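Justification of computing resources. Each target in the renewal requires a structure prediction run like the one illustrated here; the chain below, 193 residues long, is used simply to show the kind of job we budget for.
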Amino acid sequence: MIAIIGNSDRKEIRTLRGSLLMLGYPAAAVTMSDRETLSSSLAVVSFDRSVSPFVDSERTVFADPAALASDEPGVASRETLRIKDRAEEVVEIKNGVRFDNFVSKCYAERNGVSVFLGERIPLTERELLVVRLLSVYPGRYLAARTIAAFCCSDPVSDGAARTTVYEINKKAKNLTGFPLIKTKPKEGYSFGG
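Resulting structure tokens:
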């Protein structure tokens, strides 16, 4: 959902990505040449004031790398919140998505409470990230590696994403009899709410 252009080993990118994940926003570090991810991301964060040729310039959010790498108290937090707020604006204006009050035909999320087919479904932070990521791409199947890249804080295998989807569907089926996430072998996972 939010692509951060740059090397995932850089302190400022690790700080920003980790903070966005904690705030409930799927985010991944990508290279400037990753056309597929950049063109499909809802917001793109750039550190060098350049806009990727694969991205609508209105979806680009510029970040201050010095602020994110700062060890001074509060500096990185303020910059992260500024970027989050700007990314929220971009996602809402350009894509019509608001995560604090998301509603689809079978699923709703309000103030951190998830409801599927009228039943409250208790999702972990990672599960909520996966549902959020898939919900903004309805009808599109995402590979497990893409889900892992955007929703898992540590470098993990595709198996972590598969396990997370399994757990989401297990909870949904126990409550309603239906899965929340659709699966298609060799294509991946799609939002079913």
